[in-house]
UniProtKB/TrEMBL annotation:
<feature type="domain" description="N-acetyltransferase">
    <location>
        <begin position="8"/>
        <end position="149"/>
    </location>
</feature>
<dbReference type="GO" id="GO:0016747">
    <property type="term" value="F:acyltransferase activity, transferring groups other than amino-acyl groups"/>
</dbReference>
<protein>
    <recommendedName>
        <fullName>N-acetyltransferase domain-containing protein</fullName>
    </recommendedName>
</protein>
<dbReference type="InterPro" id="IPR016181">
    <property type="entry name" value="Acyl_CoA_acyltransferase"/>
</dbReference>
<dbReference type="Pfam" id="PF13673">
    <property type="entry name" value="Acetyltransf_10"/>
</dbReference>
<dbReference type="InterPro" id="IPR000182">
    <property type="entry name" value="GNAT_dom"/>
</dbReference>
Length: 150
């Protein structure tokens, strides 16, 4: 399904085309592997599941900003892999993506592991710390959750 909220794209994992998978993995590779030098594999078996949804904005060069959200085995919705191309940063694209997730799935608890320096940014969307910091992919993270909206 593609939304008509400007240029917002929303697809479940089982709806992605091969070209979309390539573009998604390309932006994540550049941001996480090259820029942030993450030391863990990105491909984790979740992306193509029907319970995984990919949200992104794009231009002629591919995705400009991206995130994925999925329902974990515990039944809790998770957000992760938030990535914005370097030439598109500072335009509020990630904020728009996160708001789109909360508009669609905010009736339930949403969890994420925020890179520690982004704690306050996520707190601005109603997320709060829910545990001790941890290391993932060589980067310090903070577990956060947003309780269901009233």
């Amino acid at each position: 399904m593609t939304d008509v909220d400007d240029d917002l794209h929303v697809r479940s994992g089982d709806e992605l085309t091969a070209a979309e998978v390539y573009d998604i993995w390309r932006i994540r590779d550049v941001v996480f592997a090259v820029e942030q030098q993450c030391d863990e594999p990105d491909v984790d078996g979740i992306d193509l599941l029907p319970t995984c949804h990919h949200l992104w904005f794009a231009d002629a060069d591919g995705p400009t900003s991206y995130l994925r959200t999925f329902t974990a085995e515990s039944g809790v919705r998770k957000v992760g892999r938030v990535a914005t191309r370097q030439d598109q940063r500072g335009r509020g694209l990630s904020s728009r993506l996160l708001r789109a997730v909360l508009e669609r799935w905010g009736d339930a608890e949403v969890r994420l592991g925020a890179q520690a320096y982004l704690h306050d940014w996520y707190a601005g969307f109603g997320f709060e710390r829910c545990g001790e910091n941890f290391w993932e992919a060589g980067i310090e993270h903070v577990p956060m959750r947003r309780l269901p909206r009233a």
